[in-house]
Write a structure and sequence with these properties.
This protein is of the alpha/beta class. It folds into 3 domains: 362 residues, Alpha-Beta Barrel (TIM Barrel); 53 residues, Oligo-1,6-glucosidase, domain 2 (Alpha-Beta Complex); 75 residues, Immunoglobulin-like (Sandwich). It is 24% helix and 18% strand. The strands form 3 sheets. An 8-stranded parallel sheet has the order 9-8-7-3-2-1-11-10. A 6-stranded antiparallel sheet has the order 12-13-14-17-15-16. The two termini are 37 Å apart. The chain binds 1-O-alpha-D-glucopyranosyl-D-fructose (TEU).
């Protein structure tokens, strides 16, 4: 890839929208496509380059859209296919790309394909799903477990077999070993590419293929009950199977038939396994999602190690990416505290590689406590009390300080958190807000190729201060992040500098010579000025 050429998914920033919670256009309490269209200017002015929409397809909503009953339409809850076309056109008119969420591991149990498959053993689509006879004792075929608890097998009395479901029983796994199923799924991808989608985030990409001998998964020696029953086993035969890479390459070849589309993979794997999803000769996913900061111990040494390890493992030509959160994980401001959330934002938006920003993190939104009576997420409902529920990080985006925050005129589907200050309107009017910081960081990225495509060197952790340098040609920018809550003094190794940005937004243009002070929970970006001759 020619480093001088502008490539949107390399130089740009992705913003994840959870459509149910972004903006409600019709007052039913659930976000929708007209609501997103109405707020595209906000996203363009924020300075992001692409939006990734969590699933918008017809779905019984057992897993809030990750149980798809028609891959080529829009659920009426979100709008119509015409609304999707309008959204893509309106986004493109603002130079925003649109990435859709593709959910190929499983469909809804109400998808016509599954209704056919379960109708009879000799139905032509029987093998589009994974059916097995009972074990000799009449029980489940093997020990495979479902992410949301319990066995991954559901008995179907009508045809006398079990079917596999890696998540809910309402989410039967599709059989990616079946060529006609693969062709049908690629046709669905093509359907959206033809309508102008700029690519896909592919759900559970690393799990699409399962062992063809259905061997039992081994016990997990590091099992922790608090992580839920799925953690009892190591998913050796149900994830990261060698055959998956042929499928990733087929998906990539399909996208390469179109102009500059992106393939992002949701992949929770150790770094060295994650890297294999870039594919041989890099014909795999453009961006295998890098989730390694999400579970990081939040201190300078741990973060430095994660960055070094990931950078060192990247195959030649592979483009990095970074994520701090998503619709499945506790929000960054809840994990590290709102003071550190500013530092985390500077880390995310100045590391080398494509960042993905989760909606609401630009305001410093935190997880919202959900009363047991208001819980919607099956992850919590099926294994209550372990903290596995994802509703807290999926609450409506507050647009203003009013009781319904400008999100809806109806009853929001999840409760709004405290939003007197954590809302777009108030923070747009505050030059030192978390939102102002994100706008300034995104503008800084856009203004400096050192931050978009420059090198990353000199990663150091001294005490709880993380420093690194981004360079492109003569342009050198030093990033210094105080991950602690005590003041620090940092030496500028050589030359002088000019303060570009502080996370406190009150130090721009300050001259820096020799050393500079970092306040508690402060990050700074400094333009290195070579030694005066
Ligand atoms: O998540 C897949 C995944 O990694 C799960 O283990 C995830 O961590 C889940 O939150 C477990 O509670 C993807 C989607 O992001 C998630 O929202 C869906 O529920 C899941 O797949 C099934 O489609």
């Amino acid at each position: 890839m020619d480093p001088s050429e502008s490539v949107w998914w390399r130089d740009g920033v992705v913003y994840q929208i959870y459509p149910r919670s972004f903006a409600d256009g019709n007052g039913d309490g659930v976000g929708d496509l007209p609501g997103i269209i109405a707020h595209l200017d906000y996203l363009a002015e924020l300075g992001v380059d692409a939006i990734w929409l969590s699933p918008i397809y017809p779905s019984p909503m057992a897993d809030f859209g990750y149980d798809v009953s028609d891959y080529c339409d829009v659920d009426p809850l979100f709008g119509t296919l015409a609304d999707a076309d309008r959204l893509i056109a309106a986004a493109h008119a603002r130079n925003l790309k649109v990435i859709l969420d593709f959910v190929p591991n499983h469909s809804s149990d109400r998808h016509p394909w599954f209704l056919a498959s379960r109708s009879a053993r000799d139905d032509p689509q029987r093998d589009w799903y994974i059916w097995r006879d009972p074990a000799p004792d009449g029980g489940v075929p093997n020990n495979w477990l479902a992410h949301f608890g319990g066995p991954a097998w559901e008995w179907d009395a009508h045809t006398g077999q079990f079917y596999l479901h890696s998540f809910l029983k309402e989410q039967p796994d599709l059989n990616w070993r079946n060529p006609s199923l693969r062709a049908a799924m690629y046709a669905a991808m093509r359907f959206w590419l033809e309508r102008g989608a700029d690519g896909f985030r592919v759900d559970v990409l690393w799990m699409l293929v399962k062992d063809d001998r259905f061997r039992d998964n081994p016990p997990n020696p590091a099992y922790v009950a608090a992580r839920g029953s799925y953690d009892r086993l190591v998913p050796l035969y149900t994830a990261d199977r060698p055959e998956i890479h042929a499928i990733v390459s087929e998906m990539r070849a399909l996208l390469d038939e179109y102009e500059s589309r992106v393939l992002i993979g949701e992949i929770y794997l150790p770094v060295e396994r994650l890297m294999t999803y870039y594919g041989a000769e890099l014909h795999g996913a453009h961006l295998p999602f890098n989730f390694h900061l999400i579970d990081a111990t939040w201190n300078a040494a741990s973060v430095a190690t994660i960055v070094r390890t990931y950078e060192a493992a990247l195959p030649a030509g592979a483009w990095p990416n970074w994520v701090l959160g998503n619709h499945d994980k506790s929000r960054i401001a809840s994990r590290v505290g709102i003071a550190q959330a500013r530092v985390a934002a500077m880390l995310l938006l100045t590391l080398r590689g494509t960042p993905t920003l989760y909606y609401g993190d630009e305001l410093g939104m935190t997880d919202v406590p959900i009363a047991a009576s208001a819980v919607r997420d099956p992850a919590e409902l099926r294994q209550p009390g372990l903290g596995l529920g994802r509703d807290p990080e999926r609450t409506p985006l507050p647009w203003n300080p009013s009781p319904r925050a400008g999100f809806t005129s109806g009853e929001p589907w999840l409760p709004l958190g405290e939003h007197e200050r954590t809302n777009v309107a108030v923070q747009l009017g505050d030059g030192r807000s978390v939102l102002a910081l994100h706008r300034r960081l995104l503008a800084l990225r856009r203004a400096h190729t050192a931050l978009t495509r420059g090198t990353l060197t000199a990663i150091e952790a001294e005490g709880n201060v993380l420093t690194y340098e981004r360079s492109d040609g003569d342009s050198r920018i030093k990033i210094a992040l105080n991950l602690g809550d005590v003041p620090q003094s940092v030496a500028l190794s050589q030359g002088g500098g000019k303060m570009l940005l502080s996370t406190e937004l009150d130090r721009s243009d300050e001259r820096v010579d020799g050393s500079y002070a970092l306040r508690p929970n402060e990050g700074v970006a400094i333009a290195i000025v070579p030694n005066e001759r």
